[in-house]
Amino acid sequence: MRANAQIEHIRQILYSQKTLSGWRALCDILDEVDNDAALFLSDYAAPLLDGWGWPQRLRVARPAWIKEAMETGFSPRLSLASTASIEHTMTPTVRQMEALAHCPDARGLRSLELRGRGLEPAHMQAMVNGDAFEGLTHLDLGFNALGNKGAAALATAHWPLVHLDLRDNLIEDRAMEAIAQAPWTQTLTSLNFYLNRIGARGIQILATKAHLPALHTLCLADNFIGPHGAEALANAPWLSGLIALDTEGCGLGQDGVAVLRAAPGLNFKLRRNLSPH
Fold first, then answer.
1. CA distances from 258 to 109, 172, 226, 231 (A)
2. Which residues pair with 244 in a beta bridge?
3. H/E element holding 184?
4. Rounded Cα distance, 85 and 95, in Å
5. Digit-coded pLDDT (tens) for 167-213
6. What is the DSSP track for 53-119?
C-alpha cells in the first residue's frame, strides 16, 4: 500500500471506527511497514487520535512495541499508545526497564501494568530515573518484590498517579515514611496495599504524615494492623473521603471495629462492612 493510500486508510479508520477493532486495524497498518514508515504514519495519526477524542483505554500498545522499546530505546508505534503492559512470559532486566523509562516514544503512556514481572528495587529505581513516565496516572506493580527499598524509590517519582496497586510487594512499616511524603499522594484516588507486611506503626505513619486529599479507595486487606492500627486509621484526616475500605484479614478485633465505627469521618456504609478478623 502506497503512503498516500495508507494515510487515507488511516484517516477513514480513525474517523469512523472509534472502537477496539478500529485501533487494531490501525496497528495492523503500522506493523506492516518498517520503522521509518511507521514513524511517518504515527506522526500523521497522533493529532487525529487526540483531536477526534479517541479514548485512552482503546489505545493499547502491542507487546512487540514494548519489547522493541526495552531492547532498543526506540519504538515509533508506541508513541500512539496510552496503555501498556509487559508480556506475562517476560521478566525484564534492569537494563530493559531503564531503556523503556528513557524511551521518548513511551511518554504518551498513561497506564502501565507490570504485575508479577519479578521487579525488584533496582527495576523501580531505573523507572524513576527516566523521564518517559511523567504523565503516568495508573500503575499496577502488584505481585513483585519491590520491598522497602523499591517503595522508597517509587516515592521519589513525580508522576501524577491516580491509581496505584502495590499488592504483595514485601512492603513493611519502615517504607511508609517515604510513601507518606511521595509527591503523588496529592493526586492519588486509589491505593492498594493488599498482602504486604504493614502493621499498626505503618498505618499510624500513613494516617498522620500522608496528605491524601483525593483518596477514595484504600485496600489494607491481609496486613495485620490490629486494633492499634484501627485507632490510627480512625484519626486519619483523609478518612472522610473514603468510599471503599478493605480491612479483611487485618485482625482489627472487636475493639478495632468499634473504634472505626465510632470515627465521625467514616462513611456510614463502610461502618457496616468492617470485620474483626
1. 43, 26, 12, 9
2. 217
3. none
4. 17
5. 999 999 999 999 999 999 999 999 999 999 999 999 999 999 999 99
6. T--GGG-BPPHHHHHHHHHHS--GGGGG-SEEE--TT----HHHHHHHHT-GGGTT--EEE-TTS--
Whether the predicted pLDDT of 221 surpasses 80? yes
| Spatial CB neighbours of 248, under 8 Å, sequence gap ≥ 6 | 221, 222, 275, 277
Domains and CATH numbers, the chain: 58-272 (3.80.10.10)
- C-alpha grid cell for residue 229? 492500627
Strand bridging mode 244-246 / 138-140: unpaired
CB of 249 within 8 A of CB of 221?
A: yes
Residue type, 160: P
| 137 vs 236: CA distance, rounded Å | 24
- pLDDT tens readout for residues 96-108: 999 999 999 999 9
For residue 241, give the 3-state DSSP assignment: helix
The two counts, helices (H) then strands (E), for the chain are: 12, 7
CA dist., res. 211 & res. 230, Å (int)? 18
Would the pLDDT of 1 be above 60? no
Please give the grid coordinates belonging to residue 186.
496529592
